[in-house]
Amino acid sequence: MPDRDYQPRAEHKFSFGLWTVGNRGRDPFGDAVRPPVAPVDIVSMLAEVGAWGVNLHDNDLVPIDATSAERDRIVCEFKRACERNGIVVPMATVNLFYHPIFRDGAFTANDPEVRAYALQKTMRAMDLGAELGAKIFVLWGGREGTETDACRRPDIAVERLRRAVNYLCEYSIDRGYGFRFALEAKPNEPRADIYMPTTGHYLAFIPTLEHPEMVGVNPEVAHEQMAGLNFMHSVAQAWEAGKLFHIDLNDQTPGRYDQDFRFGSANLKSAFWLVKFLEDVGYPGPRHFDAHAYRTEDAEGVKDFARGCMRTYLVLKGKAEQWNQSQEIRAILDELSTEQAQFKHFSKANATSLLARTFDKEAIMRKRLEYERLDQLTVDILLGVRVVTSA
Q1: Chain-centre distance of CA 159, in angstroms?
Q2: Ranges of each domain in the chain
């Protein structure tokens, strides 16, 4: 493959969030282990490791209570740092989960003042993202959920969420921002239950909006895998629906808390199928790593983490090319699946033909389905023990 050195380049569209490489290693049981890093220094570090873009929540860059003058100074310095280092800002988002005011949610909260503040805060985050050149705006409803369903009916929460997204779409239209909104699902954490727990829930929600063409999804590896789901299947459904606007890459052990491991570090085969899918279909968007370095790492370890995310993606991209070029794999796939064009679309004639057809079930059952061999060929390629002959 052309990436034999596995060095990231701009065309790969690798991005990291200020909150990812800037993560200080704090967790519910222990305080920070790394010093804070200024956003302009994070931009320099990302350029050093070969990243293409940097993403941010509003308060990753601008403190929540900053004055207008402070905000403008910070943004100006950040823009200069991005220009100086050749780093772009493809995506922006809003933090509606950290401040205690969001303890009962943001757009779905019972208090109308909280809901209004959440809208205002998001609009200002959109202003910030647009100023920095972002065209994707992610919405993660981190607190949009409940510990007890006694607090509100869930259908009322969904309606409140719908009104908020509709409002924000209209704001983007009014300001001419051209945002595409990407909704991010998570099954639980930090609340006991989240209203939109999976990508599939959001795919069902989007057609109910006033501007569904402006809204897609931002699936995250860890968020689906922590519930034991097949992440690649969620991504494929989003892609097939034309709604894969953005993607968050990391890794996760199923059934655990949200670990945000380095991409490919826990489920290598799952990561392979994901990379293969994205490359096979030609996904054109950013490959965003929403992950954190291990808490044991120092500043140099954070660079190792960032380089590792990108390197693993490129290694798996090369493995996917080998898989696609394998004559053995291609021969099995050709034997397994053929299309019957006459039954792709209904007509009275082909329905009559189908109803009259006799199927030899015993003969069909004698056909081999060589999935064990396919899977082992995949494992051999991943482990580097099989020489692939190009088709």
Answers
A1: 25
A2: 10-324, 326-383
